[in-house]
User: Fold this.
Amino acid sequence: DIRDAVLRLGLREVSHLVHVVTMTDLRKYPTHLYHYTAGYFWERSLHTAYLCEELGADDRLAFTTGVMHLVGVWALCSIFPSPQGMPIVARELMLQSELEQLRLGLDFADAGAQALAQWGFDSRISRAVAWQVAPSIGDHPEARELARLLQRAVAATDWHYGAQNEKSLLRSDLTLTDLEECNQRAAARVARIGFGF
Assistant:
């Protein structure tokens, strides 16, 4: 019963679970353009969503933006056939974006933003997804701030997934201790959800 769930977990957590369940189907779709699996991208999305929520405590769109920030990966894989060369491999999303632009003429951020706009998501979310690699190009103040928040969360996620370098640390705008603690909390929340990661 939904009332019991809200009483036990709280409205925010129930809302998060609804997002997670509705997006889980994306794990079934191929990610043939990339070295990583669909499960990897889905886990990263959840991790980033929890970081967005923590770093942007006052922003009600933060979690959804984090969950949806990689939807362009699936959009690109639905458009382009299997690559002739090597799959795209990058631990940092900025580098992944550059490789996609070179090979495909479009990156995951633009593809995701277009898909989100087509699906009727709030324009601030689709704009933030489009600008996540370079938030300063944004022309809508609220969406630009959401993109900055997303970029910080992505940098922290990059750190967690192996890109432990000065660039990720600086982009996260966190101290090393805060970065590690935020990532531990996000990883614990992802682990609680499970889904075979």
